[in-house]
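INTERNAL AUDIT FORM
Audit reference: QA-55
Scope: verify that the stored structure record matches its stored sequence.
Auditor: D.O.
Record contents follow.
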Amino acid sequence: TLFMDGTILADFHSEGNPMTPEISKDWGVLELKDLKLKSIKGFQALSNLSGALIYSEKGIKLKNVRGDYGKSPIKLEAEIDSSANAVWSVRAATSELYAEDLKDIPFFENLEFVGPAKMEFNLNGTAQQLKFENKLDFSSTSYQYKNLLLKGADIYNKLQLKGRVTGGKAITLEQLVYELKDNKVTGKGTIKSLDNPVFALNLGAQNFNVGSMGQLINILGPSPKGTVQFDIRGKGNLKQFDDALFEGNAELSNLTFTPENFPKPLSLKGKIKFVNSQYDFNDMELTSGESNFRMTGDYATGTQPALNINLTGKTLYLEDFFVGN
Protein backbone atom coordinates (compact mmCIF):
# COMPACT_ATOMS: atom_id res chain seq x y z
CA THR A 1 0.00 0.00 0.00
CA LEU A 2 1.06 3.61 -0.61
CA PHE A 3 -0.03 4.79 2.84
CA MET A 4 2.06 3.95 5.90
CA ASP A 5 0.40 5.94 8.68
CA GLY A 6 -2.10 8.72 9.42
CA THR A 7 -5.81 9.41 9.23
CA ILE A 8 -8.20 10.10 6.34
CA LEU A 9 -11.69 11.49 7.05
CA ALA A 10 -14.07 11.00 4.13
CA ASP A 11 -17.14 13.06 3.21
CA PHE A 12 -18.70 11.21 0.27
CA HIS A 13 -21.72 12.18 -1.88
CA SER A 14 -23.42 10.42 -4.78
CA GLU A 15 -26.43 11.51 -6.84
CA GLY A 16 -28.27 9.61 -9.53
CA ASN A 17 -30.40 6.57 -10.39
CA PRO A 18 -29.12 3.35 -8.82
CA MET A 19 -30.39 1.51 -11.91
CA THR A 20 -27.99 3.53 -14.11
CA PRO A 21 -24.92 4.06 -11.92
CA GLU A 22 -22.75 4.89 -14.94
CA ILE A 23 -24.39 8.34 -15.18
CA SER A 24 -24.44 9.10 -11.45
CA LYS A 25 -22.50 12.03 -10.02
CA ASP A 26 -19.98 11.44 -7.25
CA TRP A 27 -18.15 14.08 -5.28
CA GLY A 28 -16.60 14.53 -1.89
CA VAL A 29 -13.71 15.61 0.28
CA LEU A 30 -10.98 13.56 1.92
CA GLU A 31 -9.42 15.33 4.89
CA LEU A 32 -5.81 14.26 5.40
CA LYS A 33 -4.35 14.26 8.91
CA ASP A 34 -0.68 13.47 9.58
CA LEU A 35 -0.51 11.14 6.60
CA LYS A 36 2.73 9.34 5.78
CA LEU A 37 3.45 7.92 2.33
CA LYS A 38 6.05 5.41 1.22
CA SER A 39 9.07 6.91 -0.47
CA ILE A 40 9.55 6.48 -4.21
CA LYS A 41 12.96 5.44 -5.53
CA GLY A 42 15.14 8.54 -5.89
CA PHE A 43 12.95 10.70 -3.62
CA GLN A 44 12.41 11.21 0.10
CA ALA A 45 9.28 10.10 1.96
CA LEU A 46 6.35 12.48 2.42
CA SER A 47 5.10 12.64 6.01
CA ASN A 48 2.90 14.73 8.35
CA LEU A 49 0.65 15.54 5.39
CA SER A 50 -2.47 17.50 6.29
CA GLY A 51 -4.94 19.18 3.98
CA ALA A 52 -7.82 18.34 1.66
CA LEU A 53 -8.32 16.15 -1.40
CA ILE A 54 -11.43 17.25 -3.28
CA TYR A 55 -12.85 15.05 -6.05
CA SER A 56 -15.75 15.24 -8.47
CA GLU A 57 -16.60 14.26 -12.03
CA LYS A 58 -14.36 17.14 -13.15
CA GLY A 59 -11.23 15.76 -11.51
CA ILE A 60 -9.16 15.85 -8.34
CA LYS A 61 -7.74 18.76 -6.36
CA LEU A 62 -5.20 18.85 -3.56
CA LYS A 63 -5.76 22.02 -1.54
CA ASN A 64 -3.73 23.58 1.28
CA VAL A 65 -1.64 20.45 1.78
CA ARG A 66 1.30 20.85 4.14
CA GLY A 67 3.80 18.30 5.31
CA ASP A 68 7.44 17.25 5.22
CA TYR A 69 9.56 16.08 2.30
CA GLY A 70 12.19 14.17 4.25
CA LYS A 71 13.11 16.81 6.84
CA SER A 72 12.09 19.78 4.68
CA PRO A 73 8.66 21.37 5.31
CA ILE A 74 6.67 21.66 2.10
CA LYS A 75 3.44 23.22 0.79
CA LEU A 76 1.62 21.43 -2.02
CA GLU A 77 -1.36 22.07 -4.31
CA ALA A 78 -2.42 20.11 -7.38
CA GLU A 79 -5.20 19.65 -9.93
CA ILE A 80 -5.81 16.69 -12.23
CA ASP A 81 -8.76 16.80 -14.60
CA SER A 82 -10.81 13.72 -15.46
CA SER A 83 -10.34 13.78 -19.24
CA ALA A 84 -8.95 10.75 -21.06
CA ASN A 85 -5.64 12.57 -21.51
CA ALA A 86 -5.60 14.03 -18.01
CA VAL A 87 -3.93 17.42 -17.53
CA TRP A 88 -1.80 17.83 -14.43
CA SER A 89 -1.05 21.04 -12.54
CA VAL A 90 1.23 20.67 -9.52
CA ARG A 91 2.73 23.42 -7.36
CA ALA A 92 5.15 22.80 -4.49
CA ALA A 93 7.22 25.18 -2.37
CA THR A 94 9.51 25.10 0.64
CA SER A 95 11.49 27.78 2.44
CA GLU A 96 13.66 25.21 4.21
CA LEU A 97 15.12 22.65 1.80
CA TYR A 98 17.98 20.72 3.42
CA ALA A 99 20.93 18.98 1.80
CA GLU A 100 20.04 15.50 3.07
CA ASP A 101 16.78 15.64 1.13
CA LEU A 102 18.71 15.97 -2.15
CA LYS A 103 21.04 13.04 -1.43
CA ASP A 104 19.51 10.78 -4.11
CA ILE A 105 19.39 13.43 -6.84
CA PRO A 106 22.38 13.20 -9.25
CA PHE A 107 24.98 16.00 -8.92
CA PHE A 108 23.23 17.57 -5.91
CA GLU A 109 24.10 14.49 -3.86
CA ASN A 110 27.79 15.43 -4.16
CA LEU A 111 27.28 19.09 -3.34
CA GLU A 112 28.31 19.82 0.22
CA PHE A 113 25.92 22.52 1.32
CA VAL A 114 24.88 23.70 4.78
CA GLY A 115 21.77 25.64 5.70
CA PRO A 116 18.26 25.77 4.25
CA ALA A 117 17.60 26.62 0.61
CA LYS A 118 14.30 27.84 -0.84
CA MET A 119 12.47 26.08 -3.67
CA GLU A 120 9.46 26.64 -5.90
CA PHE A 121 8.38 23.89 -8.29
CA ASN A 122 5.66 23.90 -10.96
CA LEU A 123 4.59 21.01 -13.19
CA ASN A 124 1.95 21.30 -15.91
CA GLY A 125 0.76 19.10 -18.77
CA THR A 126 -0.14 15.51 -19.52
CA ALA A 127 1.60 12.31 -18.47
CA GLN A 128 3.22 12.14 -21.92
CA GLN A 129 4.33 15.79 -22.02
CA LEU A 130 4.94 17.63 -18.76
CA LYS A 131 6.42 21.11 -18.58
CA PHE A 132 8.34 22.04 -15.44
CA GLU A 133 9.86 25.10 -13.83
CA ASN A 134 12.07 24.81 -10.77
CA LYS A 135 13.46 27.79 -8.85
CA LEU A 136 16.10 27.26 -6.17
CA ASP A 137 17.49 30.00 -3.93
CA PHE A 138 20.82 29.06 -2.30
CA SER A 139 21.57 32.59 -1.05
CA SER A 140 21.36 31.66 2.64
CA THR A 141 23.34 28.44 2.27
CA SER A 142 27.06 27.77 2.17
CA TYR A 143 28.47 25.06 -0.06
CA GLN A 144 31.61 23.70 -1.63
CA TYR A 145 32.20 21.98 -4.96
CA LYS A 146 35.51 20.09 -4.86
CA ASN A 147 38.33 22.59 -4.34
CA LEU A 148 37.12 24.91 -7.08
CA LEU A 149 34.26 26.84 -5.54
CA LEU A 150 33.60 27.74 -1.93
CA LYS A 151 30.44 29.80 -1.36
CA GLY A 152 29.67 31.31 2.00
CA ALA A 153 26.23 32.05 3.42
CA ASP A 154 24.33 35.27 2.63
CA ILE A 155 25.70 35.59 -0.92
CA TYR A 156 23.11 36.04 -3.70
CA ASN A 157 22.84 32.70 -5.53
CA LYS A 158 19.86 31.35 -7.51
CA LEU A 159 19.25 28.52 -9.96
CA GLN A 160 16.32 28.38 -12.37
CA LEU A 161 15.47 25.34 -14.52
CA LYS A 162 12.79 25.18 -17.22
CA GLY A 163 12.01 22.28 -19.50
CA ARG A 164 9.82 19.30 -20.23
CA VAL A 165 9.55 15.60 -19.43
CA THR A 166 8.52 13.38 -22.36
CA GLY A 167 7.04 9.93 -21.92
CA GLY A 168 7.62 10.07 -18.19
CA LYS A 169 11.39 9.69 -18.67
CA ALA A 170 13.33 11.88 -21.10
CA ILE A 171 14.13 15.36 -19.73
CA THR A 172 14.80 18.31 -22.00
CA LEU A 173 16.30 21.27 -20.19
CA GLU A 174 15.25 24.24 -22.29
CA GLN A 175 16.66 26.92 -20.01
CA LEU A 176 19.17 26.92 -17.17
CA VAL A 177 20.08 30.15 -15.40
CA TYR A 178 22.65 30.11 -12.58
CA GLU A 179 23.23 33.43 -10.80
CA LEU A 180 26.03 34.02 -8.30
CA LYS A 181 26.55 37.55 -7.02
CA ASP A 182 26.50 39.73 -10.16
CA ASN A 183 27.36 36.90 -12.56
CA LYS A 184 25.08 34.78 -14.71
CA VAL A 185 25.67 31.44 -16.45
CA THR A 186 23.05 30.16 -18.90
CA GLY A 187 22.60 26.82 -20.59
CA LYS A 188 20.44 24.00 -21.91
CA GLY A 189 20.68 20.24 -22.15
CA THR A 190 19.10 16.80 -22.04
CA ILE A 191 18.91 13.91 -19.55
CA LYS A 192 17.92 10.44 -20.76
CA SER A 193 16.03 9.59 -17.55
CA LEU A 194 16.44 9.80 -13.78
CA ASP A 195 17.13 6.05 -13.66
CA ASN A 196 19.81 6.35 -16.34
CA PRO A 197 20.88 10.02 -16.19
CA VAL A 198 23.03 10.19 -19.31
CA PHE A 199 23.29 13.90 -20.03
CA ALA A 200 24.42 16.44 -22.59
CA LEU A 201 24.84 20.05 -21.47
CA ASN A 202 25.85 23.40 -22.93
CA LEU A 203 26.83 26.30 -20.66
CA GLY A 204 28.01 29.81 -21.40
CA ALA A 205 28.63 33.24 -19.91
CA GLN A 206 29.35 36.70 -21.25
CA ASN A 207 31.44 39.23 -19.31
CA PHE A 208 31.77 36.97 -16.27
CA ASN A 209 33.12 39.34 -13.64
CA VAL A 210 36.09 37.67 -11.94
CA GLY A 211 36.52 40.58 -9.54
CA SER A 212 33.46 39.61 -7.53
CA MET A 213 34.54 35.96 -7.28
CA GLY A 214 37.87 36.28 -5.48
CA GLN A 215 36.63 35.02 -2.11
CA LEU A 216 34.80 32.12 -3.79
CA ILE A 217 37.43 30.67 -6.16
CA ASN A 218 40.57 29.74 -4.24
CA ILE A 219 43.02 29.55 -7.13
CA LEU A 220 42.52 33.21 -8.04
CA GLY A 221 44.02 34.47 -4.81
CA PRO A 222 43.08 37.81 -3.26
CA SER A 223 41.57 40.72 -5.24
CA PRO A 224 41.36 39.29 -8.79
CA LYS A 225 40.17 41.50 -11.66
CA GLY A 226 39.00 41.15 -15.24
CA THR A 227 36.27 39.36 -17.17
CA VAL A 228 35.91 35.99 -18.86
CA GLN A 229 33.63 34.77 -21.65
CA PHE A 230 33.23 31.02 -21.98
CA ASP A 231 31.33 28.24 -23.71
CA ILE A 232 31.36 24.73 -22.24
CA ARG A 233 30.00 21.46 -23.66
CA GLY A 234 29.61 18.46 -21.40
CA LYS A 235 28.38 14.89 -21.71
CA GLY A 236 28.39 11.83 -19.49
CA ASN A 237 26.36 10.27 -16.69
CA LEU A 238 25.29 12.32 -13.68
CA LYS A 239 25.91 9.31 -11.44
CA GLN A 240 29.57 9.32 -12.54
CA PHE A 241 29.86 13.07 -12.86
CA ASP A 242 33.62 13.12 -12.22
CA ASP A 243 34.10 10.94 -15.31
CA ALA A 244 32.10 13.22 -17.61
CA LEU A 245 33.73 14.88 -20.63
CA PHE A 246 33.80 18.68 -20.61
CA GLU A 247 35.35 20.76 -23.36
CA GLY A 248 35.13 24.31 -24.57
CA ASN A 249 36.88 27.62 -24.85
CA ALA A 250 37.31 30.80 -22.87
CA GLU A 251 38.42 34.32 -23.66
CA LEU A 252 40.22 36.22 -20.91
CA SER A 253 40.07 40.01 -20.82
CA ASN A 254 42.80 41.38 -18.57
CA LEU A 255 42.36 38.61 -16.01
CA THR A 256 44.54 39.76 -13.11
CA PHE A 257 45.33 37.63 -10.05
CA THR A 258 48.17 36.93 -7.64
CA PRO A 259 49.22 33.26 -7.35
CA GLU A 260 50.56 32.00 -4.04
CA ASN A 261 54.22 32.98 -3.43
CA PHE A 262 54.26 35.45 -6.33
CA PRO A 263 55.43 38.98 -5.50
CA LYS A 264 53.24 40.73 -8.07
CA PRO A 265 49.92 40.13 -9.81
CA LEU A 266 49.82 38.33 -13.16
CA SER A 267 47.63 39.64 -15.97
CA LEU A 268 46.43 37.36 -18.79
CA LYS A 269 44.71 38.26 -22.04
CA GLY A 270 43.76 35.86 -24.83
CA LYS A 271 41.95 32.60 -25.61
CA ILE A 272 42.09 29.16 -24.03
CA LYS A 273 40.77 25.82 -25.27
CA PHE A 274 40.27 22.97 -22.83
CA VAL A 275 39.24 19.33 -22.58
CA ASN A 276 38.61 18.33 -18.97
CA SER A 277 41.87 19.06 -17.09
CA GLN A 278 43.95 19.84 -20.20
CA TYR A 279 44.25 23.54 -21.15
CA ASP A 280 45.85 24.82 -24.37
CA PHE A 281 46.60 28.47 -24.96
CA ASN A 282 47.88 30.12 -28.09
CA ASP A 283 49.08 33.67 -28.60
CA MET A 284 48.18 34.94 -25.16
CA GLU A 285 49.60 38.01 -23.49
CA LEU A 286 51.19 37.71 -20.04
CA THR A 287 52.10 40.79 -18.00
CA SER A 288 53.59 41.12 -14.54
CA GLY A 289 55.02 44.43 -13.33
CA GLU A 290 57.29 45.72 -16.11
CA SER A 291 57.57 42.32 -17.82
CA ASN A 292 55.44 41.61 -20.89
CA PHE A 293 55.35 38.46 -23.02
CA ARG A 294 53.53 36.62 -25.76
CA MET A 295 52.75 33.15 -24.45
CA THR A 296 51.85 29.75 -25.93
CA GLY A 297 51.70 26.35 -24.28
CA ASP A 298 49.55 23.93 -22.32
CA TYR A 299 48.70 23.12 -18.72
CA ALA A 300 47.42 19.89 -17.19
CA THR A 301 45.89 19.77 -13.71
CA GLY A 302 45.37 16.70 -11.54
CA THR A 303 47.55 14.56 -9.29
CA GLN A 304 50.59 15.28 -11.50
CA PRO A 305 50.12 18.82 -12.83
CA ALA A 306 52.33 19.83 -15.74
CA LEU A 307 52.96 23.23 -17.30
CA ASN A 308 54.70 23.78 -20.64
CA ILE A 309 54.95 27.35 -21.87
CA ASN A 310 56.88 29.35 -24.42
CA LEU A 311 57.45 33.02 -23.65
CA THR A 312 58.56 35.63 -26.15
CA GLY A 313 59.38 39.13 -24.98
CA LYS A 314 62.02 41.84 -24.87
CA THR A 315 62.76 42.08 -21.16
CA LEU A 316 62.29 39.86 -18.09
CA TYR A 317 62.48 41.54 -14.67
CA LEU A 318 63.16 38.81 -12.11
CA GLU A 319 61.66 40.84 -9.28
CA ASP A 320 58.32 40.62 -11.10
CA PHE A 321 58.24 36.84 -10.59
CA PHE A 322 60.52 35.93 -7.71
CA VAL A 323 60.51 37.04 -4.08
CA GLY A 324 63.79 38.36 -2.75
CA ASN A 325 66.64 40.60 -3.77
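Auditor finding: record pair retrieved intact. The chain has a mean pLDDT of 87.
Action required: none
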